[in-house]
Amino acid sequence: MPVLKTNDGTEIYYKDWGSGQPIVFSHGWPLSSDDWDAQMMFFLDRGYRVIAHDRRGHGRSAQVPDGHDMDHYADDLAALTAHLDLKNAVHVGHSTGGGEVVHYLARHGESRAAKAAIIAAVPPLMVQTAANPGGLPKSVFDDFQTQVATRRAEFYRDVAAGPFYGFNKPGAKPSEAVIQNWWRQGMMGSAKAHYDGVVAFSQTDFTEDLKKITLPVLVMHSEDDQIVPYADSAPLSAKLLKNGTLKTYKGFPHGMPTTEAATINADLLAFIKS
To answer: Where is each AB hydrolase-1 domain found (predicted)?
Structure first.
């Protein structure tokens, strides 16, 4: 398997297919690069080079005990772009991966990047604070950690079968294959990485990161997202970005790159080509 070794010795698994302008995909919690199958096949077929990695502690990357925070996530992404010597890359991040992309661009600069898109992403800040009264209470994320530590397999099944894909909504038609694939990806990773990752995605404040980014960024989010509430995320991120464009959907779930791939792929392609 293709892997790179980071400065702290962590082995990061990645996929690198095709040629042409590179598109780099950063996945959500607690998944893996496999969550981008629908996007990678679509863009590969249209002449792009598609790249995705398993975040440290996730998927096939090393299950190291430490470094499960946004600084390390961003540094690992920078290590990947340097390892592959990427230029003019488009970075696409979903959910936690959107935070990873934002923090990478702010922390490591834009010299290797052309554009970015963040989909159902966690910035600017998920947790409720005095400065972010619209956020979710910390108790919500404390409960996530308790579930990961005590009944991870059942919890992941519940998330995939319920709010992640909107399968808990009236009239929804759950896909057993999609639910099992989410569960498979989650259970491949490390409970420790996923436990620590809850803090990383919920408590990292990306406000200053967003302000630093100058390249074009497409902010894609659904008003019906049950995982990352719309009002306290996408519109705020788009305002903080110097060159942000907000694309709002209705009726789509948090996992819309999978269930609404045709729409998401078409909108990403139009943005990349614009």
So the answer is: 22-254
Query: Is 95 an annotated catalytic residue?
Result: yes
Reported pTM:
0.97
Tens place of pLDDT per residue across the chain (274 aa): 899 999 999 999 999 999 999 999 999 999 999 999 999 999 999 999 999 999 999 999 999 999 999 999 999 999 999 999 999 999 999 999 999 999 999 999 999 999 999 999 999 999 999 999 999 999 999 999 999 999 999 999 999 999 999 999 999 999 999 999 999 999 999 999 999 999 999 999 999 999 999 999 999 999 999 999 999 999 999 999 999 999 999 999 999 999 999 999 999 999 999 9
Amino acid at the residue 6? T
**Annotated catalytic residue within 26, 61, 95, 202:** 95
Q: Which of 196, 209, 225, 232 is catalytic?
A: 225
Q: Does the annotation mark 225 as catalytic?
A: yes
Radius of gyration of the chain (CA): 17
